[in-house]
Design a protein that fits this description.
four-stranded antiparallel β-sheet, 29 strands, mainly beta, five-stranded antiparallel β-sheet, 5 helices, globular, 423 residues, single chain
Amino acid sequence: MNQLEAIIYNIIKKNPKLKTIVRDIYQQILYYVPVKKVKCNYQIKVRSGFFFGFHDKTPFSRDNKFMLAMKYHTPLRTPLPEDYVEIGYFTGENFSEFKALSKTNTYNWQQGCMLQWVGNKNLLAYNAFDGKKNCTEIIDMNGTKIAVLPAAVGAICPSGEYALSYNFARLAKYAPGYGYATGNDYELHKNTPETHGLHIINIKTKVMKTLFTIKDIVKLKPDDSMPDSYHYFTHPLFSPCGKRFFFLHRWIKNMNFTFTRLITCDIDKINPYILPASGMVSHIGWRDDNHILAYCHVKEGDHYVLFEDKTDKYEIIGDNCFNSDGHPSFSPVDINWLLTDTYPDRFKLSFLILFNMQDRKRYNIARLKQPIQYREELRCDLHPRWSRNGRILCFDSAHTGNRALCTIDMGMEFTKRNFVDYI
């Protein structure tokens, strides 16, 4: 963002409808300014017709031999109940061979079907619909069904013991890019439902327990903007050790103005803590068991902020390198490397970025122009993810004209910190 864009953004950011209108008009005007569609000094492997989803899960198996993916057949529209994606994985040289294992009609374009690995075994989980309600299916690498969990899940802990669940049907109306066409919400009309909340599922026993309802969390240090607002939970994620998790509590005032707070908690419901972000929290990730990175608003403004869990301590990250939102995650082998991206700018250009926490330098790895029709809940954010060995960057992009699953192999020299090849 330039200075003028930042001023306008700060004026309209809490009004999503107005922000969307202004952004779309601005991008439409500038979209046809001639700029190079792809700028990258590395080879980008493009798998058209496939995608993975969000940035908070890795598609790579523990041994980095397999990469999870979804193959879509739906045109560019909000998924309908009869639409489906194929579930499977890529393998072989440069992850070129796809093996389909199953199908699901419980997906969206931003987070897919929450496809993810389960523990240390080569088992994978994804959200599905059993004909009556949303659920989670767990299968092996041959597509054999191992288990069915009683609800759709948002996150599975690293050990594969527990999963966190919330109501995706509730999001379908008020956060359409993150809800599903399947499932039901019998309390959709209620601002603070008594039955909906955040639940933890024991994957072995399939027993689901409610940690707290939406009504419980609304009562936790309530804000003046909460009465008569519509509340929901989203974006849960376990800490690396699996003993704690975070989630976002969001509420919409007058069906337009959105507020968010970031809450952490132990898996046994002890020690819930509201981190000191004010009003806006966007995308988040664990650095380690005690620190969380979020793009959010603090008293200094909108920044990437590294919070110390269960305290009010925080540090602004990359103050001179970032002035817009992205989807961050830390390297699994070196937490000094931060991977993130940007939303499409005025020219619909998205940046894939590495940031070094020690030298505080930003490296633009790729610049990709997204088609103008990919917007709102149909957009194709890069949502970058790491391979387990910290060598391969995986992301979704539509720069070729269609949504595609892409990878860049940074090579062994990058893992040795001899990293110089950036744009």
